[in-house]
Amino acid sequence: MIRASHSARELVASAQNLPGFGDQPIWLSLIKVVAVFAFLVVMTLFAIVFERKVVGRMQNRIGPNRTGPWGILQSLADGVKLAFKEEVIPLLADKPVYFLAPILSAVPAFLAFSVIPFGPQVSMFGHKTALQLTDLPVGVLVVFACSSLGVYGIVLSGWASGSTYPLLGGLRSAAQMISYEVGMGLSMVAVFLFSDTMSTSGIIYGQRHIWNVVPLFVSFCIYAVCVVGETNRAPFDLAEAESELVGGFHTEYSSFKFAMFFLAEYINMVTVSALATTLFLGGWRAPVPISLWHGANHGWWPMLWFVIKVVLCIFVFVWLRGTLPRLRYDQFMQLGWKVLIPINLVWILAVTAIHVLRDRGWDSWKATALPLALVLIVVVIPALMVLEGAAARRTADRVAEDEAAARLEPTFPIPPMDLVVPTPKRLATTSAPRASVSEGDNADG
């Protein structure tokens, strides 16, 4: 019976494309846990300095240059400063929830990285193991669930602070994150259909010939926009709009609790960058010029390609922060619900049709061209006509409002707002002779 159960477990694991994570020693799993934790902490320290340096370069500033060589220890100095600052707890705060909220924000950010593959199977201390903590048949959904749990920390922190502005910031952030989680989840559906699996290692295995960013470019663009809103990063950092909500949901937090919110934000940025690398950018596989080398996708080298891709994705986050202005909240919600989600649904229908037609034996170009042509004729062209008509109506309304305002203008003259009273010329001409006479009298005297 033991042999039968063992063989059945092996058959299930092989059918799910999982490389057998349950048979490795527990000490090896603990080493992986410590390695993932250390990687996230180091990437957080790096991302803080990297962001300040890049934004400083974009704005013709030097950036951090005092703490450590070239300012590379600035993020460590910030962490030490936050850890030793005085902690101020509001009198009206709900203390159990107030203490729990930062933990609910930081812990899921670490857990989400447990299913992200860093590389293929390697030899560690005489054991063959994958460079991944664990994997599941629904590994991508684990990352999605962990990112969703972060909403609870934000909402509870705003509610438990006992103040109005943190509560408004928490509610706004919750609405923002839930709205863009819908678009983010729908952008993953096309990847699941294309790869026939929700396992992260299986998705990377499916990109051994071509990365998913090429056939699923629409899903990649929608995912990129949604994760910026999901992580509360500029230009979608409306939960921390200083001109409206002071500091957002963490206004009443200080010291180490504020540092945990700070840590969760940057770890989430690293996590969504790693997930974008896994879903669309080939994961740990080397790019095309380097992949011609036979050893590029073997051994420990794939970890380097994975980290480079994650850093490039973080650079895009920083680039957006340094260049784009903040949107209004109504524009932001309209983009998510009225633009990204409808495009996502239509794109999922097109990918499903292509998938079904290929399974029925159609040629690849026919199975791809027919659904895309139907989408272009039935959806895209009417949508463009509707948008053009709406723009024309807005222009006509604006012209009508200008004409109505012109008719209501008063007929009597009104002085301009920037009125400058000129100096009278007569005063200038009369003052000159007086000055000359006085000078002559003084000379005669």
UniProtKB/TrEMBL annotation:
Gene Ontology molecular functions: NADH dehydrogenase (quinone) (non-electrogenic) activity
Disordered, as annotated region: 426-445
Keyword annotations: Cell membrane, Membrane, NAD, Oxidoreductase, Quinone, Translocase, Transmembrane, Transmembrane helix, Ubiquinone
Location of this chain's protein in the cell: Cell membrane; Membrane
Highest taxon of source: Bacteria
Keyword Transmembrane helix: yes
Top-rank EC class of the record's enzyme: translocase
Catalytic activity: a quinone + NADH + 5 H(+)(in) = a quinol + NAD(+) + 4 H(+)(out)
Signal peptide start and end residues: none
Keyword ATP-binding attached: no
EC number: 7.1.1.-
Topology of the protein relative to the lipid bilayer: Multi-pass membrane protein
Annotated TM spans: 26-50, 97-118, 138-161, 182-204, 210-228, 258-280, 300-319, 339-357, 369-387
Subunit and partners: NDH-1 is composed of 14 different subunits. Subunits NuoA, H, J, K, L, M, N constitute the membrane sector of the complex.
Its biological purpose: NDH-1 shuttles electrons from NADH, via FMN and iron-sulfur (Fe-S) centers, to quinones in the respiratory chain. The immediate electron acceptor for the enzyme in this species is believed to be ubiquinone. Couples the redox reaction to proton translocation (for every two electrons transferred, four hydrogen ions are translocated across the cytoplasmic membrane), and thus conserves the redox energy in a proton gradient. This subunit may bind ubiquinone.
UniProt similarity note: Belongs to the complex I subunit 1 family.
Protein's UniProt name: NADH-quinone oxidoreductase subunit H
Organism: Jatrophihabitans cynanchi
